[in-house]
Structure formats: structure tokens, C-alpha cells
Amino acid sequence: MSKLTLGSYPHMLGFEQLERLLERTAKSSEGYPPFNIEQTSDHSYRITLAVAGFSEADLAITVEDRQLVIRGRQRDDGSDRIFLHRGIAARQFQRSFVLADGVEVGEAVMENGLLHVDLTMSRPETVVQTINIRKG
Prior knowledge:
By secondary structure, the chain is mainly beta. It has one helix at 16-27, and strands at residues 35-41, 44-50, 59-64, 67-72, 93-98, 103-111, 114-121. Belongs to the small heat shock protein (HSP20) family.
């Protein structure tokens, strides 16, 4: 059985970039850190990541090529602590979320070990374009 691609559909023109984004996002679906996505109104969303142990300085949020990228890297405090058990993850991470056209990233807030990132979606205006037919 062959894999169907968006290019296989003759009415789907120019969606190759979307197909690449979907493949890239599917490959990066690691389970750390856990997150929630909630709809907070008809045109807004909130992504919440569980980032216990990370400070604001350990986190970076960027938008790259219509992707929201959240990175975390804890700094080594240099102490000579000896752990008998280490169950709290202290590893770096990168989480990516593909943003649709019209989705804008708002503010980010740290609260009780949770990072909240607010998103808003603007309503696109309906555009009607008339194409003149030239006599050849």
C-alpha cells in the first residue's frame, strides 16, 4: 500500500510545506514535559506545560517559521549534592507546536511549576477576488 501525500490530490495546490510541518511535528512528539491545551474562549487558547524545577531564566519561548518552540535547560548549580534517589527530571527539552495562520502568541506566565502560554486567533476577513479574462 502506498502512502498518500497532499500532492496526490490535484485540488490541493501549494500544501507541500504543510505536509513537511506535519511530518516534522509527528517526529517530535516526545512525552516530556507533559502539557495541556485548552480553549479559553471562541478565539483563544492556552498551552500549559508542567515545568517543575525550571525557573523563568531556564526557559525560552520563540516563534520560528509558524512554530511555537518552548525550550528548557536547567543550569547546573555546581553543588556537590549526593542524591540517594533522583526522580525529578532535570533534563533539557524542546516542545514544538505548529501555529495556523492568524494565531498569535500572547503572554507567558509561570505559576506553581506550570508555564502558561496564551494564544489568540484572529478572524480572517473574507476575501473575494475577481480575475479578469483577457482575450487572447
